[in-house]
Amino acid sequence: MSRWVLLADPEAYGWTELLRDRRAVWDGIKNARAQSNLGTFQIGDVALLYHTAPDKAIMGTVRVISEAYPDPKNADLVVVDVEPIVALKRPLPMTELRADSVLAEMGFVRMPRVAVQTITNAQWERVMQKSGTDLGTSLGADPGDAGSP
């Protein structure tokens, strides 16, 4: 299982909408590097969902529930389906990510324009520790835990 971060514009589609819909096609990704990353997603991979401005915070975790497939709106792009796992106990803002030596090394903290990036197990665990979120729950140990903090 790989671990990722997905950047989302909360004014277009974010954590609240994903909770409401219970699953979503993760589309709108046009950057070549992000598309390449998205194309490697496997069923069962997990991702942090990061809200860009105005929130600028990690909001929750999601599970990949499909392999990459051609975007129905643009066959040159790929998409995946995701579902929410759990909201972080408290959103983790970018200011805290930058101030932490482990989290400051996450690619999206240094290069926020790539909307799909891999993260390490240590970075995932640190996010859960700093946000007060149970590590097992963050990985989907209890699917009934999805929701807002």
Give a topology summary.
Elements: E1 3-8, H1 15-21, E2 24-26, H2 32-38, E3 46-51, E4 57-64, E5 69-71, E6 74-93, H3 94-99, H4 107-110, E7 116-118, H5 121-131, H6 135-138
Parallel strand pairs: 1-3
Antiparallel strand pairs: 1-7, 2-6, 3-4, 4-6, 5-6
Describe what this molecule looks like in 3D.
The longest helix is centred in the C-terminal third of the chain and has 11 residues, at 121-131. The protein has six helices and seven strands. It is 26% helix and 33% strand. The chain has a single domain (3-137), classed as ph1033 like domains (ph1033 like fold, Roll), CATH 3.10.590. The protein has 149 residues and is an alpha+beta fold. Strands 1, 2, 3, 4, 5, 6 and 7 form a seven-stranded mixed beta sheet that branches.
CATH topology, what is it called? ph1033 like fold
In the CATH classification, which architecture applies?
Answer: Roll
Radius of gyration, Cα only, in angstroms? Answer: 14 Å
How far apart lie the N and C ends?
A: 25 Å
How is the biggest beta sheet arranged? 7 strands, mixed
User: Averaging pLDDT over every residue, what do you get?
Assistant: 93
Low-confidence runs (pLDDT<50, min 5 residues)?
A: 143-149
Overall geometry: globular
DSSP helical segment count: 6
The helicity comes to 25-40%
Provide the succession of SSEs.
EHEHEEEEHHEHH
- Tell how many strands the DSSP assignment holds: 7
CATH superfamily: ph1033 like domains
β-sheet strand percentage: 25-35%
Structural class per helix/strand content? alpha+beta
Classified by CATH, the class is: Alpha Beta
The structural domain count equals 1
